[in-house]
Structures are given as structure tokens and as C-alpha cells.
Amino acid sequence: MTQAVAVPVACVPYEEDATLAVIDAVSAATDRSPAEIGPLNDVIDPDALNEVFGPTCDDRRRTGGWVRFPFEGFSVVVDGGRQEVRLYE
């Protein structure tokens, strides 16, 4: 039996602001403006998300880790190794 591979409905790269990439990905996947996207802080702390996936205090890129959480009907994956946000249905 083969196992289906999940394909993201949106994939947005980021450099420093992972929370902005989450909003951009949802906006792209739903054809809604960022202002129409629900508040991210209802499901996750945006400051903590940016702190975990942003550059280190000496401006080095973080090279790993990921987090998954539900938002706006999607399963959101922030991938620190690839520096991207992926949305899954």
C-alpha cells in the first residue's frame, strides 16, 4: 500500500518575520487581503514565533526546528531549516 504525500496549498519563504509569512501564505491560499485574516495571536504568540525563527542576536540564520499549528482552517508549518511557511488542508 502506498502512502499519499501531503502537498502544501501555499508555500511562502521568509527571512526574519515568520508571522508575516504566515499571513501572506493564508492570504495567497484564500484570495483574501491580509487585513481580512483573523488575528494570529488567537492561536500562537507572534512575538515568540518570530523570536524562535528569526535570526540569532548576532544575526546568524537559524538552521533548524519547526512548529505546526492550526490557523484559518489550515495546518500551518513554520520550517526554520528551509525558512518557509507551508499550509496544508
Overall description:
- By secondary structure, the chain is α+β, with helices and mostly antiparallel strands.
- The protein is built from two helices and four strands; from the N terminus they run βααβββ.
- A four-stranded antiparallel beta sheet has the order 1-4-3-2, with helices on one face.
- Strand 3 and strand 4 form a beta hairpin.
- The mean pLDDT is 91.
- This is HalOD1 output domain-containing protein.
- Residues 15-81 form the Halobacterial output domain.
- InterPro entries: HalOD1.
What composes the largest sheet?
A: 4 strands, antiparallel
Largest sheet strand order? 1-4-3-2
Helical content, roughly?
10-25%
Radius of gyration: 13 Å
Helix/sheet category: alpha+beta
Write the layout of secondary structure elements.
Blueprint: E1 10-13, H1 18-30, H2 46-53, E2 66-71, E3 74-79, E4 84-88
Antiparallel strand pairs: 1-4, 2-3, 3-4
State the gist of this model.
The chain is α+β, with helices and mostly antiparallel strands and 89 residues long. The chain contains 2 helices and 4 strands, in the order βααβββ.
Could you list some keywords that capture this structure?
89 residues; 2 helices; alpha+beta; globular; 4 strands; single chain; four-stranded antiparallel sheet
